[in-house]
Amino acid sequence: AKERGRNTWHVYSQELHDELADRLDLSKKLRYAIEQNKLAVFYQPQVDMTTRKIIGLEALVRWIEDDGTIIGPDRFIPIAEDSGLILPISDFVLQTACRQLARWRDMGLNDIRVSVNLSGRQFQVPDLTDQILYAVRSAGIPTAFLELELTEQVLIENSKSHTQFMQDMRDNGITLAIDDFGVGYSSLSYLKHFPINALKIDRSFVKDLPDDKDDATITQTIVSLARNLDIGIVAEGVENQAQADFLIERGCTIGQGYFYSRPVPADEATALLTAPNSV
Ligand code: C2E
Ligand code: CA
Ligand code: CA
Ligand code: CA
């Protein structure tokens, strides 16, 4: 048994070593990709499901390799968070999204907003507020058209620094949405204390609608919670008409998901925004 334990450890240790080496390799490549401008921002529409009009777009980062291969954020955001590279990445996404919104506004698209994800690591930056305001002002867009998405986990882990930050955002007219709502930590008290503009129902609850009874109940509960608190609600991961119908019927009219559009490059997003029938 001892021998076997040792072998197990040996194998495990080798795997761990390989994994660490992979991560190190990836973080080096990522650093280089940032320097070489290989990151891009894609946009996924948030749609009024009753009219199919686009009311906003979420900015989602992508890593484009030289051969055109697209690496999704789930593969590199965790590494970026560990290595600190998330800070330049976040700044890039924020500035790119603000400038893109300015271009859309120049085209007369004056009532759409853009949403940008915030990472917990950004709360460790003392001038986060200034960084955000700088991006908004240098793009020349009104603050009210930028929305920041943060998870409950980020809020709870940074309970000290987020209070001032949230107040700063409110004072400047920037809106906040709670991402992945309903998964993990659920401390609802912040809904009362902070200027939350919207809850985004996590995709995991939407996936098996309308058939899964538990998911139907959870979704319905989140929708009525939000409505009673006068907070907006967005359903993530809407993939079909049946899900959309269920959500609309329960009072959630804004949806984001493959049923309407995948995240697309800026020029394709522009085409969607200017098409006569939207998505
Ligand atoms: P998220 O913020 O929850 O973003 C929504 C994710 O769901 C996106 O994945 C989107 O492509 C995917 N999605 C949207 N609709 C559907 C659908 O109908 N079906 C399915 N199966 N998936 C759908 P993506 O772009 O791969 O991003 C994954 C996560 O990476 C994001 O989850 C977010 O947590 C993080 N992320 C992306 N961009 C950024 C960024 O610029 N900064 C930070 N800090 N995190 C980012
Ligand atoms: Ca998000
Ligand atoms: Ca989400
Ligand atoms: Ca998610």
TrEMBL record:
Residues 23-277 form the EAL domain. It comes from the Bacteria. This is cyclic-guanylate-specific phosphodiesterase. It comes from Aliidiomarina shirensis. The chain holds residues 472 to 750 of 756 of the full protein.
